[in-house]
């Protein structure tokens, strides 16, 4: 998997997210060339996290790339509307999620519930994808996640892969923490049941 | 407890997910240098003019425009309307007050003018005054007894007493200075 390890500056930035967010917002507010610098910093800081969130929803790299670029363009053009009431990254995640959902609705991507985990349309599609080199267990996991309802899938991805806290998720999705915990718990049980069934 | 520790606890019911979480990656790949080139690609697109949208003016103009548009939000519009009403009320009251002061000032000044000054002014500008009014003003008061009575429907018009009338006219002639009369006329 060709994912590049973050360098020292990037690691430092990730550890001090709030400081970076403040710097980004301050540059964006200044406008002109400062705004461009701020926007570049925003992209460097969040592009990977947003990319993987989108990729897990749309699966295909080219689709994820289109959605992410649209997301960033939207962020750039509406950055003046961000009031700072929520965390910057929950605002970005919300925009990225909405963009991905809009994209999927346009594409009318209907992946029927598979009869066999190994032969699901998604599994076949991923096998043919040059940007996917996962093993059978990873294919099975993707197929299992695909069977979840949209909202449950989103909650599962944010918690399982991004390890997002329930508090942040609640702020982003406007759902109570209790409901999110229950949703994740049901998703875990469904996936385990799916894997057990087709093992 | 950290998020990752909490998550591990939440996955206790699912050995499959717990095992998969230990594995690095998810099977997805990205093209080489993708994340290095993405910001430049996005910036290139951001700088392209949006089709159908007229390019806007300079940044400061845009900010002024945004500020003015912001003023039309209900809360600001209400506040502005209140301020406008207050300003109009203050201006109106101030003007009214100034008008009162002017008329008071005029009254005070008229009182301060002496008879000599008034006489000199009227004499110098006599042509501007109505002759009838001047004569009327300079004439002594006519005794009520010599004034003709107002005609009524029933009563006959009272004829003034000839002797009294002659006396009155003599008095008027005596009082009026011939030079003044000539000058006035």
Q: Based on the structure given, which CATH architecture of the largest domain in chain A is correct?
A: Orthogonal Bundle
Strand count, sense and barrel status of the largest sheet of chain A are: none
Structural class of chain A: mainly alpha
Number of helices of chain A: 10
Total of DSSP H or I helical runs spanning 4+ residues of chain B? 9
Specify the CATH class of the largest domain in chain A.
Answer: Mainly Alpha
Low-confidence stretches of chain B: none
Counted up, domains of chain A total: 2
Give the overall form of chain A: globular
Q: C-alpha Rg of chain B, in Å?
A: 50 Å
How far apart, in Å, are the first and last alpha carbons of chain A? 26 Å
* Poorly predicted ranges of chain A: 1-5
User: In one word, what is the shape of chain B?
Assistant: rod-shaped
What is the CATH third-level topology name of the largest domain in chain A? Answer: Rna Polymerase Sigma Factor, Chain: A
Percent of residues in β-strands of chain B: under 5%
What is the helix/strand order of chain B?
Answer: HHHHHHHHH
Q: What's the pLDDT, averaged over the residues of chain A? A: 83
Query: How many β strands of chain B by DSSP?
Result: 0
Give me the oligomer status: heterodimer
Radius of gyration of chain A: 18 Å
Keywords:
heterodimer, A: mainly alpha, Rna Polymerase Sigma Factor, Chain: A, Arc Repressor Mutant, subunit A, 73% helix, globular, B: 185 residues, mainly alpha
Short description:
Chain A is mainly α.
Task: Tell me what the structure shows.
The complex is a heterodimer of chains A (about 200) and B (about 180). Chain A is mainly α and about 200 residues long. Chain A folds into 2 domains: about 1-110, Orthogonal Bundle (Rna Polymerase Sigma Factor, Chain: A), CATH 1.10.1740.10; about 110-199, Winged helix-like DNA-binding domain superfamily/Winged helix DNA-binding domain (Arc Repressor Mutant, subunit A), CATH 1.10.10.10. Chain A has 10 helices and no strands. Chain B has about 180 residues and is mostly helical. Among the domains of chain B are: about 5-70, no CATH class; about 135-185, no CATH class. In chain B, about 65% of the residues lie in helices and about 0% in strands. Chain B has helices at about 5-10, 15-20, 35-45, 60-70, 75-110, 115-125, 130-140, 160-175, 180-185. The longest helix of chain B is centred in the middle third of the chain and has 39 residues, at about 75-110. Classes of the chains: A mainly alpha (about 200), B mainly alpha (about 180). The interface of A and B includes residues 61, 72, 159 and 161 of A.
């Amino acid at each position: 998997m060709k994912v590049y390890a973050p360098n020292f500056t990037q690691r430092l930035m990730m550890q001090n997210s709030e400081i970076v967010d403040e710097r980004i917002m301050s540059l964006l507010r200044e406008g002109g060339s400062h705004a461009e610098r701020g926007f570049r910093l925003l992209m460097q800081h969040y592009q990977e996290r947003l990319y993987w969130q989108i990729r897990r929803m749309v699966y295909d790299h080219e689709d994820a790339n289109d959605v992410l670029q649209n997301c960033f363009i939207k962020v750039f053009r509406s950055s003046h509307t961000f009031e700072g009431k929520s965390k910057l990254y929950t605002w970005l995640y919300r925009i990225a999620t909405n963009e991905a959902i809009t994209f999927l609705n346009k594409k009318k991507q209907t992946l029927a519930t598979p009869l066999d985990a190994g032969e699901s349309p998604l599994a076949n599609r991923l096998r043919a994808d040059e940007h996917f080199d996962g093993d059978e267990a990873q294919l099975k996991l993707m197929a299992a996640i695909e069977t979840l309802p949209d909202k449950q899938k989103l909650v599962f991805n944010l918690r399982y892969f991004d390890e997002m806290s329930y508090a942040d998720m609640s702020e982003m999705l406007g759902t109570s923490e209790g409901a999110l915990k229950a949703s994740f718990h049901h998703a875990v049980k469904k996936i385990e049941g799916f894997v057990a069934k087709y093992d | 407890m950290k998020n990752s520790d909490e998550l591990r606890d939440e996955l206790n019911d699912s050995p499959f997910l717990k095992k998969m979480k230990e594995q690095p990656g998810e099977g997805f790949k990205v093209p080489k240098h993708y994340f290095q080139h993405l910001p430049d690609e996005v910036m290139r697109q951001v700088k392209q003019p949006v089709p159908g949208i007229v390019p806007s003016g300079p940044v400061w103009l845009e900010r002024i425009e945004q500020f003015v548009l912001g003023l039309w939000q209900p809360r600001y519009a209400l506040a502005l309307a209140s301020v406008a009403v207050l300003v109009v009320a203050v201006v109106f009251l101030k003007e009214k007050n100034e008008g009162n002061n002017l008329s008071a000032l005029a009254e005070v000044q008229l009182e301060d003018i002496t008879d000599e000054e008034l006489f000199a002014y009227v004499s110098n500008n006599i042509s501007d005054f109505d002759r009838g009014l001047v004569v009327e003003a300079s004439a002594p008061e006519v005794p009520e007894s010599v004034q003709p009575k107002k005609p009524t429907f029933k009563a006959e018009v009272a004829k003034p007493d000839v002797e009294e009338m002659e006396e009155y006219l003599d008095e008027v002639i005596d009082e009026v200075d011939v030079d003044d009369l000539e000058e006035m006329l």
